[in-house]
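fyi for ur records
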Amino acid sequence: MVFAAGLGTRLRPLTDSRPKALVEVNGVPMLEHVIRHIVACGFSEIVVNVHHFGDMVIDFLQSKEWDAKIFISDERGELLDTGGGILKAREWLDDGRPFLVHNADILTDIDLMMMYRHHLDSHADATLLAASRETSRYLLFDAKGQLHGWINTATEEVKPAGFVYDKKIYRPLAFGGIHVVSPTIFPSLEKYSSERKFSITPYYVSECRKLSIMGYSPKESYRWFDIGKPETLRLAESSF
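which gave:
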């Protein structure tokens, strides 16, 4: 599943006239970069959610040949965020097999199939791309890669309730906007929020004591850019 429904507020004024997913990197829309990479890694069925300038995204998807089946999860009536977006697309995702989730604003050359196979081998409920990079919000993993909590280093807020952050035990890593998810999460995901709109990351943090939520940090080097801000967009254009 590719999240392409976001408002792209950090990229204004670029996103005043187009969706963030169609902002170009070196003349190619981000959504095309992402889908081409996903297909090159061996995936053949892709769900794309749409909201902001959703008609433009749908027209773009229908104008290309993708070497994959493309399904549209229509959120034009209501933006559901990442957790709600996965639930909305459940009809395509809940077939007994794990599925890849990829933000449309993440530009990377990571081997996605290697990550998928790692998830299969680990029998985790979810596997999150995680890396050592500077941010204010970190996921906290133990030595085995199991998620235990979350911290905002700017405010020192820690979640979930009752969790005690010990720097000697837990490693802070930044979430990379790519995850592999098993359908085993759907029962608890359905019960997690009384609202249709919610984010998937707080869900992972809330349920990490009950589910196997693992971090994935490949040994192989890879390029990774969040093009959600003008400065990182420029950096991506000089590196890809």
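The mean pLDDT is 95. thats all i got for now
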